Amino acid sequence: MAHQNVETVERAYAAFAAGDIAAVMDTWTDDIVWHQSGANPLAGDHTGKEAVAGFLAGIVQASGGTFKVELQNVFADDTNGFSLQKGTATIDGEDLESWAVLGYRFVDGKTAEIWTFNYDQRISDRVLGG
Question: Which CATH fold would you assign to the domain 4-127?
Answer without folding.
Answer: Nuclear Transport Factor 2; Chain: A, (3.10.450)
